[in-house]
Description:
Elements: H1 15-44, E1 73-76, H2 77-83, E2 99-100, E3 103-107, E4 119-125, E5 131-137, E6 150-157, E7 160-169, E8 171-181, E9 184-191, H3 197-205
Antiparallel strand pairs: 1-3, 2-4, 3-4, 4-5, 5-9, 6-7, 7-8, 8-9
Amino acid sequence: MNVTLPESRRPARAMPALAVFAALALGLSATACGGQAASTDDDTGGSGWVVLDEDISLDGLRVEGASEPVAPAQMSQAEAAAVLPFAIELPAWAPDGFVLNELVEVVAPEQPRAGDYASLILTWQDGEGADVQLQVSTAADSQPHVGAAGLGQEVTINGQPGTLLETQGFGPARLSLAWTRAGLNYRLTATGGTLAGTDLLRMAESIA
């Protein structure tokens, strides 16, 4: 008995040919990719990194415009004068009983460049533990750093504007006098409560 199947139920005779074509296409693609991967492995050692034939030294490399931080150092005034980019000028007057320490504190780069920070701190002390510090620096900020509430007063030091500030709060009361002179920033700071603002003004005005 002959049975005729509907057209939709007949086996697709084209399927074997399509399967063979697909297999050939996949084989060619795998061969191409395998050759490229082998070439990459030969160049990079299989790690994905490019292998250099020689070492590269990083010694001597530096970022332009960057300066190494410099720690403060104690030294004599003569030693400070030799490393600072500005001349040391001392006040001609100091309050009675206050004696200038022989050692000063200096921040100065070994190989200074334009714009580098440099500073000098001189300290006068009396027998009661009070002290006065004079800081001279090339920093841009000439105003005293305030860590507590304070009362500021605008003053004049040899024709130059300045600020006299009395701070109270954290620690003992402190007087600060800040001004600019000859392109440098000056700050006098007194602790111990034995000096008045007029003492700092007189001391500042006595700098030649």
